[in-house]
Amino acid sequence: MLARRAIVAAGTAAVAMAATRAPAQAQVTQPQGAQAQGAGAQGAGTQGGAARAGASGAQPGGDASPRPRAGDALLVVDVQNDFMPGGALAVPRGDEVVPVINRLAPAFRLAVLTQDWHVPGHSSFASSHPDRKPFDVLKLAYGNQVLWPDHCVQGTEGAALHRDLSVPHAQLVIRKGYNRDVDSYSAFIEADRKTRTGLDAWLKAKGVRRVFCCGLATDFCVAWTALDARRLGFEAIVVEDACRAIDLDGSLARAWDAMAKAGVGRVRAAAIA
Ligand code: VGL
Ligand code: ZN
């Protein structure tokens, strides 16, 4: 588990490298249908602004091979106890991503883990708002925010990574959602759509051009991370069977739709490793 890991809580990074690995070859599925319904691609959750397709920048999937290569990184999003069955914000079958990610990760020379990392009393918690209950939507300064049960509170067991997650060569752990008044589904940009986590600069300093996204939840933190990756000029591919969704009022279908429109690719883990 996570030997030699570097923790980034506020935009500083530390680094360690690991060996490369030659993975198997396969095909990536390109997203279909780029027609927007209405004005612009809609963000996956109801957190803040709309996702905009990266019209410029790299094409999704690049050479259309999901075979990990130099310039690729694996982003393992929020594989934390509170998102597991029985957890505070359980994602159905969330635990099933763990063995898939463990098998996938060695194919990537660069791997980053993220943790949802809220202060007690965080504004995304229903308990922080009088007369509100979990899964209500509330308008906050930056836009609509789904209110969640208290989850992933800093330093708690619920915020810890799943004990069986094994990505020992991960060089960076990005924590997000630690500003009380701003949520962050995305590993790149907080819900105010301004505040950066530092991940973009870190990846670019490493020469990363393409990110593979996996983890929890498909329709919130994974989708927002993949959409922001596109917005920031990366190619982005979601490893669909290495993710599980919350699926709140159609959020999963909306997320895949927004990702397709933004040029996020979609692949199965077996095509990678
Ligand atoms: C997440 C809801 C609230 C996620 C985090 O990791 O997808 N979802 N906080
Ligand atoms: Zn959260």
If you had to describe this structure to a student in words, what would you say it looks like?
- The longest helix is centred in the last third of the chain and has 14 residues, at 218-231.
- 15% of the residues lie in helices and 17% in strands.
- The chain starts with 6 loop residues before the first strand and ends in a 6-residue tail after the last strand.
- Helix 3 (218-231) runs parallel beside helix 4.
- The protein has helices spanning 97-104, 199-205, 218-231, 251-261, and strands spanning 7-8, 72-77, 111-116, 137-140, 143-146, 172-176, 210-216, 235-244, 265-267.
- The protein has 273 residues and is α/β, with parallel strands linked by helices.
- It is globular and about 50 Å long.
- The protein has a domain at 26-44 and 71-220: Rossmann fold (3-Layer(aba) Sandwich), CATH 3.40.50.
- Bound molecules: pyrazine-2-carboxylic acid and zinc ion (ZN).
- Pyrazine-2-carboxylic acid is lined by residues 78, 83, 116, 148, 185, 216-217, 220-221.
